[in-house]
Design a protein that fits this description.
By secondary structure, the protein is α/β, with parallel strands linked by helices. The protein is built from 13 helices and 21 strands. The C terminus is likely disordered.
């Protein structure tokens, strides 16, 4: 295994990435916010041409697990190859739970947690973010992998947002398990302002009074009251599972120092990576969906001027693009989202209705006077193509400004002739003609060619610019 590279985004299965790229004892801090086995679908919400948040959204991942051949094969791999205590636990849980969705979730998580323990330095720590759905099972697994004596805290994140139950108490917290790899772990105690109801009875603590009451500058405890994100906040990017930046800053300040390496193997929209970059840590992020990689890349570039990082696992040539399209179970959609990213188009999702049926993505741009938003519709094909595909796109594009056809396979002469026959779209705002139907191959896009359209609107909200300062560490002294 080569020397560890940092400031890298990896596209792919984190189990494979951990085994292939991450050496033993190389990571200082791991934060993971994995699926919770919540039986929900989670979406990303896009932006309208006006800049407002859209009702349009696409499913990023489905947090529903089923016992299938993959789960069964993984279970047998754990029993045969995992550390003995872990293998015994998973076997015992399987005997109790049987072949159900909870067990499928646990066999997905267990080998990944084993690998995370392997890559942590002896001074390193792991923070696993979950909710009550499966937290009790996950703690059993963590105890076996890390050892119960290395359990440090069950942190309660109280976020105060969310619905109120009519037949139960309002559910307004998540759990974050904090484990160290050894007793020689890095920890920088953090302080916070804590409200005291009355000043009497606290003679051993220096109390400062302000206009809101009595406060003390106390060391942080294991219940964190941090508001969750709301849709109208500038920090929000439309990613449903996005966590507040301040939450990740607190974890990273507490359990790492400047220059340390932070890993998020389920990094979603990249909040842990942004916090690490802000606090002068090195970082690694892994995600299995190209949409997440795309959102993270844009967020990092928006947040930090001149930032440099590498993206590993996305296609670099036609051969790797074809391999992505053939991956099971969802390679076709991953290829589609990746291809759309090459022209900065917004995906439309797996199901299209009405006039959008047959469209894989759109690019919006301002046009006319007064300015109105127009659309270029996009189709992506990874398999065999035919002139009828262009005719179908022409029909859809007749109700829009333009049509873009992205193909992995070379187009036929008849396809190009049909596209040229569609004529031009005239832009009154830009006073230019643009080809009504444009065909672009993956090979051309990888070589730098792009669409010929008026200045497009960005499909994702722009992340806030973040000043990168020195990470300040609080100590007992």
């Amino acid at each position: 295994m080569d020397e560890l590279k940092t400031d890298v985004l990896y596209f792919g299965d984190n189990l494979e990435i951990l085994r292939k790229y991450i050496p033993d004892n190389s990571i200082d801090l791991i934060y993971l916010d994995p699926p919770f086995s919540s039986k929900k679908d989670y979406n990303i919400i896009f932006k309208e041409a006006t800049g407002e948040r859209s009702e349009a959204q696409i499913k990023v991942f489905s947090d529903t697990w089923t016992w299938d051949k993959i789960a069964e094969r993984t279970y047998y791999d754990i029993v045969q190859t995992a550390p003995p205590d872990v293998a015994m636990l998973i076997d015992a849980l399987h005997n109790v739970l049987g072949n159900n969705d909870v067990m499928a979730y646990l066999v997905m998580m267990t080998p990944r947690l084993v690998e995370m323990h392997r890559v942590l330095k002896d001074t390193g720590s792991l923070y696993l973010h979950c909710d009550p759905t499966a937290s009790h099972y996950l703690k059993l697994v963590l105890d076996q992998i890390f050892g119960p004596t290395n359990f440090r805290n069950e942190i309660i994140w109280h976020y105060r947002t969310g619905g109120v139950g009519k037949r139960w108490f309002g559910r307004k917290h998540d759990t974050i398990f904090f484990y160290a790899k050894s007793s020689n772990y890095c920890f920088n105690p953090q302080k916070e302002k804590s409200y005291l109801e009355h000043k009497y009875g606290f003679s051993n603590i220096r109390i400062e009074q302000d206009e809101r009451g009595y406060y003390t500058d106390a060391f942080m405890r294991d219940v964190w009251s941090i508001p969750g994100l709301r849709g109208n906040q500038p920090e929000v990017l439309g990613y449903q599972t996005q966590k507040p930046l301040i939450l990740l800053e607190r974890i990273i300040k507490a359990s790492s120092n400047e220059g340390d390496v932070v890993l998020d193997p389920f990094c979603g929209c990249g909040t842990a990576l942004v916090a690490a970059q802000k606090l002068n840590r090195r970082w690694l992020g892994i995600d299995i969906t190209h949409l997440a990689i795309r959102v993270m890349s844009k967020r990092l570039k928006d947040s930090f001027s001149g930032i440099e990082f590498e993206v590993v696992g996305v296609p670099k040539d036609v051969t790797s693009a074809r391999a992505l399209s053939l991956q099971k179970p969802d390679g076709r959609y991953q290829f589609q989202w990746w291809a759309l990213s090459l022209i900065d188009a917004q995906p439309l999702g797996e199901k299209k209705k009405g006039a959008d049926k047959g469209i894989d993505g759109v690019i919006t741009f301002p046009d006319e006077r007064p300015t109105r938003a127009k659309r270029a519709v996009v189709q992506v094909k990874s398999g065999h193509v035919h002139v009828k595909d262009i005719r179908e796109l022409k029909d859809i594009a007749s109700r829009n400004a333009m049509g873009i056809f992205i193909t992995l396979e070379p187009p036929t002469r008849e396809m190009r002739t049909e596209a040229v026959g569609a004529g031009y779209y005239h832009s009154p705002l830009w006073e230019r003609d643009y080809p009504k139907i444009q065909i672009l191959t993956i090979e051309e896009l990888l070589a730098g060619k792009t669409v010929d359209i008026p200045l497009p609107n960005p499909p994702f909200p722009k992340a806030q610019k973040i000043p990168q300062k020195e990470g300040e560490q609080l100590s007992m002294g």
